[in-house]
Amino acid sequence: MGSALPLGEPAPADGSLDVAVDQATPFGVYLHVPFCRVRCGYCDFNTYTATELRGTRQDQYADTLLQEVALSRRVLSVAGPLRPARTVFFGGGTPTLLPAGDLARMLEGIRSTFGIAVGAEITVEANPDTVTDEVAAELAASGVTRLSIGMQSAVPHVLAALDRTHDPANVRTAVAAARTAGLDVSLDLIYGAPGESLDDWRASLETAISLAPDHVSAYALIIEQGTRLARQISRGEVPAPDDDLQADMYELADGLLGEAGYDWYEVSNWARTPAQRSQHNLAYWQGSDWWGYGPGAHSHIAGLRFWNVKHPAAYAQRLAAGESPGAARERPDQAARTLESVLLRTRIREGLPTAELLGSGRHAVAALIADGLIEGAEAVRGRVVLTLRGRLLADAVVRALTD
């Protein structure tokens, strides 16, 4: 049911923010749909199966979330003129467990409240088993532009190790449905599962490339405390991920995707063209504003971070009572904002301006070039950009730049 929320000061019951919004800062929307058919053993997202909902009904969820949309309009109207959404992202969970009409209704709520910018990217995450021609067509008709399909692997025993229940053949079906509806396609992959070999991973990459998506995300499996997989590893039932093997898997992904015409633009993300990059995720990495709707969702407005209560029942009860579902909030100080900027912006292709580094960080640049972790030519032009080796050791680069 998700990891614990961070600590912070209590959020006001009326949801007020006490901030002044910069109209030039892009505004995005995240809509969290916390429902899953089964719980994957590796996942610590704030998601719930039917037996965990305790009185919350999926068929009422869209109406509940739209109550938060109305609340956000009141709150943000105080902070300045409302900005149109440049990106909208339905994440989860499995958004496509809800009827496509419910997703369309939530999107219309965003459109009627804030407006949606011309050319906005509107993404829906989907389990391959839940995508049909009819679903894809209805999503496209509502204004959705992009489907992000949770492929994870093409190898049955790897999917089983991850507790993924979808039929691998349905990935191809889902991609075809999305293409027929005129949607852009992203495929999400995970590598380093227990029992997954380098050849298994190659098979998954080659299958993904054969489907000609516009975008590919490939994430190393991370063992999160409190998950079933973490307990299995602690009991010695399955092996922990092998760091060296995961590094080999990353290099293989970068090589095969590069040969197929995909360029990396963030450590775990590749796209055919700059226009096909995930604009919503770039907004996170570049420090834009966004409002996250739904239980456990996080938001960032004008330097203020806040997050909602976790459980769907508590979320619905707060809104039914006319209160904000906000659990807590924080306003990071300058040191925290600098660290976050280095952490996020070194991960993207455009890199981090060296002028934004503090003295010790600037002094570390020469050593990082010598170690082959950042591009020397880019550093001369005033930017910290990771090499392939640097992407494998991104955390070490961040430590060197911020110590």
Automatic annotation (TrEMBL):
Radical SAM core domain segment(s): 21-263
Keywords per UniProt: 4Fe-4S, Chaperone, Cytoplasm, Heme, Iron, Iron-sulfur, Metal-binding, S-adenosyl-L-methionine
PROSITE patterns in the record: RADICAL_SAM
GO cellular component terms given for this protein: cytoplasm
Biological process terms in GO annotation: porphyrin-containing compound biosynthetic process
Compartments, record wording: Cytoplasm
GO MF assignments: 4 iron, 4 sulfur cluster binding; coproporphyrinogen oxidase activity; metal ion binding
Domain of life according to the entry: Bacteria
Main location: cytoplasm
Heme in keyword set: yes
Transmembrane segments: none
Functional description taken from the UniProt entry: Probably acts as a heme chaperone, transferring heme to an unknown acceptor. Binds one molecule of heme per monomer, possibly covalently. Binds 1 [4Fe-4S] cluster. The cluster is coordinated with 3 cysteines and an exchangeable S-adenosyl-L-methionine.
Family: Belongs to the anaerobic coproporphyrinogen-III oxidase family. HemW subfamily.
Listed name of the protein: Heme chaperone HemW
Lineage: Bacteria, Bacillati, Actinomycetota, Actinomycetes, Micrococcales
